Amino acid sequence: MSDMRVAVVTGAGSGVGREIARALLGAGYRVALAGRRPEPLRETAQGSDAALVVPTDVGDPESVAALFDGVRDSWARVDLLVNNAGTFGAAGSVGELSYSDWQAVVQANLTGSFLCAQHAFRVMREQDPQGGRIINNGSISAHSPRPRSVAYTATKHAITGLTKSISLDGRPYDIACGQIDIGNAATEMTAGIATGAVQADGSVRPEPTFDARHVADAVLYMAGLPLNANVQFLTVTATAMPFIGRG
């Protein structure tokens, strides 16, 4: 077996997940690319013989189990999980959002992150040498909500609790866990923000964005630390976005 480190990146078919996966491949990791759509995953993997494409629904327990079984069968261990998969879901206030729309966001953002963390934790706990790192993608919404985003905001606040719980539970097994909170990285998912986003006062204004490659650089830093050091929380935003202050 090679001593190359093994990473699993969810939501690796586009946006921030694709940037993170490609950065890890460039840094010498073997990377399992997880996401719902096979073709975008293959595009992320293009040109690399260290990528494993594993179509996965992170909200489905059987699909997540198959993902980690496949990684373990291929490479025998997991050194890093980047819990990146997620969705904004339907917009709606707490008085408007349907149960099915709520459930879809919770399943993708929160249950999916829990299931992937659970399987990664088990592998990291049992492997030799023991240990590993889990990095959860929170969001600026883990701190401060946008209007009409109750499901997304609630799940991202919950990711912070998940991060802290994994950090505590992982201490006896050399498993570190941290969270990266991102504000307005330029991706397909955030394209509308650059043209006009609803503000707290009800107005619609364009917001600045920044290159998603800077998120990948931050994740590489977090992942590159020895397991006795950890970035617990890291926030990366477009400098002039309306996050700090009273808008």
TrEMBL record:
GO terms for molecular function: oxidoreductase activity. InterPro entries: KR_dom, NAD(P)-bd_dom_sf, Sc_DH/Rdtase_CS, SDR_fam. The keyword Secreted does not apply. SUPFAM superfamilies: NAD(P)-binding Rossmann-fold domains. The keyword Oxidoreductase applies. Keywords: Oxidoreductase. Residues 5-175 form the Ketoreductase domain. It comes from the Bacteria. Belongs to the short-chain dehydrogenases/reductases (SDR) family. This is SDR family oxidoreductase.
